[in-house]
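ingest -> validate -> predict -> emit
validate: passed (alphabet ok, no gaps, 132 aa)
predict: started
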Amino acid sequence: MTDPIADFLTRIRNAAKANHKVVEAPSSKIKKEITKILYDQGYILAYKFYTDEKGHEQIKIALKYHPQTKLCAIKNLTRVSRPGLRRYSSASDMPRVLNGLGIAIVSTSKGILTDKAAREANVGGEVLCFIY
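emit:
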């Protein structure tokens, strides 16, 4: 697998479109940070990091749905920077997703941050994905 972050985002996207309640994926440090940001921003209901019977770390994510309309909180999840074409942005040129209604997740020198937090910390970095 050449792009594990894209695989992680695709698993979440596919589970949301199929109306699954839970999605599991292999774990890494970047995926853990992305999961924490999704939880803090209210896009997922809960998450759990655990080790399976083979000793591999896994992430279990409970997706969030609207109680009446049964629509997933994640409408779109797009990978921006990829191994074939990296996308970097400075703090002043940080992209705004849906004019501030969505978030961009950015890998900076201060860790994995949202676009708003990166602007406040005045740091740029690699734009990993857009979520709304």
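The two ends are 26 Å apart (CA to CA).
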